[in-house]
Design brief:
Elements (H helix, E strand, L loop, with lengths): L7 H13 L10 H10 L3 H12 L3 H4 L11 H5 L1
Helix pairs in contact: 1-2, 1-3, 2-3
Length: 79
């Protein structure tokens, strides 16, 4: 699996799926996350972590008291 930095396209795909799933379904065992991971050459856990990083900058999540992971990159913020 990939060990290089996430590309803008990979982040866009993770964000697209993030927008479709409820927060509680973001985990590496989710079949939708597993399918996306296979397509983009990442592990399911890596995709779930990226989605939780995205959650950390989502006002709908942070305003409800949840935090996500908090390791969002500059590219995550830009996307």
């Amino acid at each position: 699996m990939a060990t290089e930095l996430w590309t803008k396209e990979q982040i866009k795909l993770a964000f697209h799926l993030y927008c479709q799933l409820p927060y509680g379904r973001i985990h590496g065992r989710n079949p939708e996350i597993m399918a996306l991971a296979k397509v983009i050459g990442r592990t399911a856990d890596a995709v779930a972590m990226k989605m939780l990083n995205i959650a950390s900058i989502d006002p709908a999540i942070t305003s409800s008291g949840r935090a996500g992971l908090g390791n969002a990159s500059a590219l995550d913020r830009a996307v």
